[in-house]
Amino acid sequence: MALGPGLIGTGFMGKAHALAYRAAGAVFGDLPPVRLARLCETPLDRARTMAGKFGFEAATEDWRELAADPAVDIVAITTPNALHREMALAALAAGKHVHCEKPMALTAEGAREMAEAARAAGVRTIVGYNYIHNPAISNARRLVADGTIGRPIHFRGTVDEDYQADPDLPWTRRARRADAGLGALGDLGRHLVSVAQVLMGPVESLIADTQIAHETRPLADGAGRGTVENEDIASALVRFASGAQGSLATSRSAWGRKNRLDWEVHGTRGMITFSRARLNELRLYINEGAAGVQGFRTVLTGPEHPPYGAFCPAPGHQLGFGDPKTIEVAAFLRAIAGDREAHPAFSDALAFEEVIHAIDAAAGSGRRVTL
After folding, report:
1. CA 52 from centre of chain
2. Residue 8 in contact with residue 79, Cβ under 8 Å?
3. Of 9, 20, 125, 261, which is the most exposed, with the fewest CB atoms less than 10 Å away?
4. Torsion of CA 357, 360, 365, 371, to 10 degrees
5. pTM of the full predicted structure?
6. Could you say which DSSP state residue 188 is in?
7. What is the per-residue pLDDT across 123-154, written as a single tens digit (0 to 9) for each?
8. CB burial class (10 A; 0-12, 13-18, 19+) of residue 49?
9. φ and ψ at 282, to 5 degrees?
10. What is the pLDDT of residue 174?
11. In whole angstroms, how far apart are CA 163 and each of 168, 192, 205, 215, 232?
């Protein structure tokens, strides 16, 4: 029997979800069949237009109607951050599997409530940390786990954007905690935390600092200036449960940076580095052989790094931004069919969200926070 996704929201990530649910069956041969059951957007005319464009069978402007629809088995939530918690809880109460874009909620408490509701409902959940589904990241995870670089001792990562770099940009909901929650940490830093914990294990404690680069912004109607309540920049020094250390830095006010996510894992025998600008590559250094010929080598992602080969049989042909989302959807569909947890389920993603809120708390208190 085909699984019926219902999609709430048709913006940037809504389109990414629609394309991924359509593509997953064609890319992977071991998935349950999917029929795109229902799409929700406002107003209703736009919902009908987007349902036709994306290939959904029906449209509505009422997300509660979608969540209650017997034809919908999976509720995919791609709305503004402040709506995620309420929509997810309603979908879980209706017995639906839930695919929620990050963040789960605006607060750690809200995310914990969602994780507990998912456990009680006994359904499958996944949160849209699609970057960790990149085959290059999966390869790095294997290299770390099998001891290729020795014992991991340090993680160093940066994630930057410049969408809030201009001080003359108008004030928006992104600046208010009640609407957006955290700032750079909530939008960008959580992706870096997800990679760090996938590679290094759980964070045990941290110290941190945050900065609001532009404390006010002009209101769109020209009637004064609005206060920016959440951080533009954040930095943290972390200690992992393994004893390894790390540094995490993020900014949404870094001129010239476009979805920059760079990281390094330092080990006792070598190092792995990655830059999202080169999405299909790792750089690997291993301390072996004559000193005069040692150096970093480029590991180009190819069919040897599953599931790259499901997309393309030849290395060097490159995967793109949407492909990890398709891998994420495939993992979720397999989890539903096999009645097992997907990754990251709500319980996994809660650990990511607790770290970013701990960074915010540590910056506010000036003290080390233990998770």
Report:
1. 28
2. yes
3. 261
4. 30
5. 0.95
6. I
7. 999 999 999 999 999 999 999 999 999 999 99
8. middle
9. -120, 155
10. 87
11. 12, 18, 30, 15, 10
